[in-house]
Design brief:
The protein is α/β, with parallel strands linked by helices and about 400 residues long. The protein is built from twelve helices and ten strands. Bound molecules: pyridoxal-5'-phosphate.
């Protein structure tokens, strides 16, 4: 097999068929690299050739994936479960905590629904109380101030007053790109006896994240955005010591210890009373998405090779160049003023009276895919984007807003 080009910041060598002039929708769905394609194809070929014989090979590969994900987020492999998309992960957690009726949870208004619906369902089922805190005004309206400080003050007041069991938040807000002050939020949660559950899908892979220093208790993440894998695969992190306390109400056959003994060890091993695993793997109750996880492993090893900090800095340089161009066209940037609150998303409010959907269509037809969540124009470059694209993006946007360039 021909060797593939090494990944490089600002290079599309690994994305030779990508149709976009500037692909700016990684916050929605990323294109996959040749490395990812090759891994997914390899898995298919192995199962095509060997059927069940391919199983041990790819089970071993998934052990490596756990280790790679662990390196990405500062966790041990045994604290990571390979799970489907973000929502599945959050639902698993929401239905596996040892709730007491009346427990209170904090969520945030303006969150992506994946990080709201499962908590609403759990609240209904277990008789919990959901408190929805507003995001600071300038993360949704663009007014400058100290959004992280405001948010922390509000959170602390709530934690002090309400005896909160769990705070659920996205590491990065999907529409504004605001990076939440996770380390400080985690410290507050610790101080007031609450747990911190994080939806990492808008951060993991391109924004540095560390479960240890950010005091994250649970992390849910899907593969298809900044991790650059495929939809339908993902992972769940559970802080050491917390997994044994889970009440895995959605456990499946693989959640038991020695779950596969009856398949390989002869008669007498088919039992239904084996204890449940006391690690994060208890959340892996069913057979795995082989192709999705093969793809995810290739995607994550590419990111680790490049280094998340370097990817983040590369994207910041791109957004530093793009932001003034957009502002010069009358757009209002919602990018945080403080670097520590920035992510790899740059969202802008279009000038008054502009038909945003038409702008998105114009850009799409010009092969510049962007997204339009909640009426904001969202640009989300990743490591393959080159700064040389920025002038073409600005010129197409000018065209969309003001007619001929
Ligand atoms: C913050 C956030 N969480 C979750 C999701 C998606 O969740 P899932 O992986 O379940 O499709 C998205 C975007 O699609 C998102 O922006």
């Amino acid at each position: 097999m021909d060797p593939l080009p090494a990944p490089r910041l600002g290079s599309r060598d690994l994305f030779p068929t990508l149709q976009a002039r500037a692909y700016l929708s990684h916050a929605a769905i990323s294109p996959v690299s040749l490395l990812v394609q090759r891994a997914a194809t390899q898995a298919m070929e192995d199962f095509s050739a060997w059927g069940v014989g391919a199983f041990p090979l790819w089970a071993k590969q998934r052990q490596e994936l756990r280790a790679a994900l662990g390196r990405l987020i500062g966790a041990a492999p045994e604290d990571i479960a390979l799970t489907p998309g973000t929502t599945h992960s959050i639902s698993q957690l929401a239905f596996s905590l040892d709730w007491q009726e009346g427990d209170r949870l904090v969520i945030f208004q303006g969150e992506f629904p994946a990080n709201v619906t499962p908590w609403q369902m759990a609240a209904k089922h277990f008789g919990l109380e959901l408190l929805a805190l507003p995001l600071p005004p300038n993360t949704s309206s663009g007014a400058p101030s100290d959004p992280a400080g405001e948010l922390l003050d509000r959170l602390e007041a709530t934690l002090r007053r309400e005896a909160i069991r769990l705070v659920a938040v996205s590491a990065v807000q999907f529409q504004t790109g605001f990076r939440m002050p996770l380390a400080a939020m985690g410290r507050l949660c610790r101080t007031y006896g609450a747990e911190l559950a994080v939806d990492g899908i808008q951060a993991c892979g391109a924004v540095p994240l560390d479960v240890e220093t950010q005091h994250i208790d649970y992390l849910s993440c899907g593969a298809h955005k900044w991790l650059m894998g495929l939809e339908g695969a993902g992972f769940t992190y559970v802080r050491p010591g917390l997994a044994p306390r889970l009440v895995p109400r959605l456990a499946g056959w693989l959640s038991h210890t020695d779950a596969e003994a009856f398949l390989f060890q002869g008669p007498g091993h088919l039992r239904y009373d084996r204890p449940l695993k006391t690690s994060a793997a208890v959340l892996e109750g069913s057979s795995t998405n082989v192709v999705g996880m093969a793809a995810l492993q290739a995607a994550v090893s590419t990111l680790l090779q490049l280094g998340v900090t370097d990817i983040f800095e590369h994207v910041q340089a791109y957004l530093d160049a793009l932001e003034p161009e957009l502002e010069a066209l009358g757009c209002r940037s919602l990018r945080a003023r403080k670097p520590e609150s920035r992510s790899c998303i740059l969202s802008v409010r279009l000038p008054e009276g502009v038909d945003g959907a038409a702008v998105v269509t114009h850009l799409r037809d010009a092969r510049i895919p962007v997204s339009y969540p909640d009426g904001l124009l969202r640009f989300s470059p990743h490591f393959p984007n080159s700064l040389t694209e920025v002038s073409a993006v600005a010129s197409e946007l000018r065209h969309a807003l003001h007619g001929a360039p």
